[in-house]
Automatic annotation (TrEMBL):
Identification of the protein by name: Uncharacterized protein
CC per GO annotation: plasma membrane
Transmembrane segments: 35-54
Region annotated Disordered, chain positions: 1-29
Chief location category: membrane
Biased composition (Basic and acidic residues): 19-28
Entry keyword Transcription regulation: no
Family matches, as SUPFAM superfamilies: OmpA-like
Length: 310
């Protein structure tokens, strides 16, 4: 019997069915793990860098690094709370300027309210009271002993080293003189200047240093002369001369000292010396030539004849 087409066992072509399937990947998983890994590696690098610094530096160097990143740190012993921006002083006539003693007419401050510090009122009154008591003290023997350069140098060093913002700058403060006068020189360094280049605007370090020294000066008898000095850098036409610049820097120092509690009536003079008295004459452009010199002068019997505070 013949096979019927289409039936099983037939020789007719059979349909071939091909099943195709596309390979599917797992999809994009994101790159957040890369960010987390990078953060982890950065933290580890910073950690090992800090460990290396701790192992490779001395205690004094570590304190200096800490104060560099925190120049306005608080200190309970000095009224250095915080400092506000300092404005540039007004222009001043060329030449040396001298501010006379208490009998001379008062001239306005070059900085006026430019240098502003938030000093607690109680601390400010305490500094002023201590300065007044020192000038009126009848114990001349103690005053003579404390007013000698070695004793003053120790007191200045202690005052500067006590403040976190200034203890790294103690090497820039030099004390010298004789029994009749004491000179405190605050010099620039290559790493830490006291003023902006070519300007009479003191930076935060200069303000902190002068505020730390002001109570020491206030507790010593005598009148104060402030001198400003520059290096021998030539000045350009139309800009401040070294005479004007040094005088304005001296007056800026005066303004800070007075605001820190030093009696204004004890000021004898504020003078700009330009580059006429270089500390390092072999290198006229050396940073040490740029300085502020505070000279405390006490003549025989001067402590008992000082005017009373006004």
């Amino acid at each position: 019997m013949a096979r019927q087409p289409g039936k099983r066992g037939s020789n007719a072509p059979r349909p071939i069915i091909l099943r195709r399937s596309d390979a599917q990947d797992g999809g994009h998983h994101g790159g957040s793990w890369k960010i987390a890994y990078a953060d982890f590696m950065t933290a580890m690098m910073a950690f090992f860098l800090v460990m290396w610094l701790i192992n490779a530096t001395t205690e004094q160097q570590r304190r200096g690094i800490a104060s560099f990143f925190n120049p306005l740190a608080h200190d309970n012993n000095v009224p250095l709370d915080a400092m506000m921006p300092i404005n540039s002083p007004s222009p001043m006539a060329r030449g040396t300027r001298t501010i006379a003693g208490p009998n001379a007419p008062r001239t306005g401050s070059l900085l006026k309210d430019g240098v502003q510090t938030r000093v607690p009122e109680a601390n400010l009154k305490t500094m002023q009271y201590n300065a007044l008591v020192a000038t009126r003290s009848g114990d001349h023997a103690a005053s003579d002993k404390d007013g000698r350069p070695p004793a003053v140098a120790q007191r200045v060093h202690d005052a500067v080293s006590r403040v976190p913002a200034t203890h790294a700058l103690a090497g820039q403060v030099h004390v010298s003189g004789s029994d009749g006068e004491v000179r405190i020189s605050i010099e620039d360094s290559d790493r830490q200047p006291m003023f902006l280049l070519g300007q009479a605007v003191p930076n935060a370090h200069a303000v902190a240093l002068l505020q730390a020294i002001a109570p020491v000066l206030g507790n010593l008898p005598g009148v104060l002369s402030i001198g400003g000095y520059t290096d021998a850098s030539p000045y350009r036409v139309g800009h401040l001369s070294n005479w004007t610049l040094s005088a304005q820097r001296a007056d800026a120092a005066r303004d800070i000292l007075v605001k820190a509690g030093f009696p204004d009536w004890r000021l004898r003079s504020v003078v700009g010396h330009a580059d006429r008295d270089l500390v390092d004459s072999h290198d006229p452009l050396a940073a040490a030539n740029r300085r502020i010199v505070l000279t405390l002068i006490r003549k025989e019997g001067e402590a008992s004849t000082m005017p009373t505070a006004r």
